[in-house]
Amino acid sequence: MFVASNILPRWLEVLLTEKFYNACIIHEEAKKNEKNVYCLDCCISLCPHCLSPHHSHRLLQIRRYVYHDVIRLDDAAKLIDCTSVQSYTTNSAKVVFLHHRPQTRNFRGSGNFCSTCDRSLQEPYLFCSLSCKIDYLIRTTGGISKYLLECNFMSLPEPGSDDGLMTPDSILEPVGSSRTSSGSGGYGGGSGTVECRTLACTATTEIVRKKRSSLSACRPVCSQVSEISAMNRRKGTPQRAPLY
User: Which domain of life is it from (predicted)?
Assistant: First the structure.
């Protein structure tokens, strides 16, 4: 959907067209060689083994959820105005998608939708991803310069605290969803611990209910079998009546 343009600064154009999480060619024999870091100064993607020469540069951690690239909302907000872009809460952090996600159905009913790709959104958001907002601004205003922010410092998380990979088991909910404890929009932190405990308790309750249902369903059958066995034991071996 997004077409690279000379209207964009170089770092943003490359960020939106770069393929992340490919294996690093330079360190192809090393473990954890996925290119999941973007250097804003050199405009290239890096793997963890490539970071040493870039330690003083502005580095952006690219995360992934089910084959889609996301970045932390806090990081994105240092680079560009993220107003009206729907954010999500996962792993106790708010993230935004870099690109729009293909939809399985093209049906459009009533409700709120992305102004670029028609994906269903929560109120009052207008865009499902950063690229959708950028594409919209280029089409309607001719540029995005007034939406870009000056960022002189961007650091990576502490080593070992975040590998950037969000598995399909992670909870990815829109900010403001009833399943999350964070508010809609904004930059406040969510209560990930409370959410996880609630979901764990719910899952445990469902398991207990299923086990009880299975036991209760089995009891009548087991009782019938026991009664039949008892009757067979009481009846004993049939004997013929004596002949006179």
Answer: Eukaryota
Closest C-alpha among 17, 74, 26, 79 to residue 48: 26
- The residue behind tokens 């904004």 is 186
Q: How far is CA 219 from CA 42, 228, 231, in A?
A: 70, 14, 18
* DSSP designation for 88: E
Give the residue among 1, 6, 2, 3 at the shortest CA–CA distance from 143: 6
Q: What is the pLDDT of residues 76-115, one digit of tens each?
A: 999 999 999 999 998 888 999 999 988 866 666 678 999 9
Crossing angle between the packed helical segments 130-141 and 10-17, to the nearest 10 degrees:
130
- Tokens 């865009």 belong to 127
Q: Which of 122, 101, 100 is nearest to 111 (CA)?
A: 122
* CB atoms closer than 10 angstroms to residue 134: 23
Dist CA 10 CA 53 (whole Å) = 20
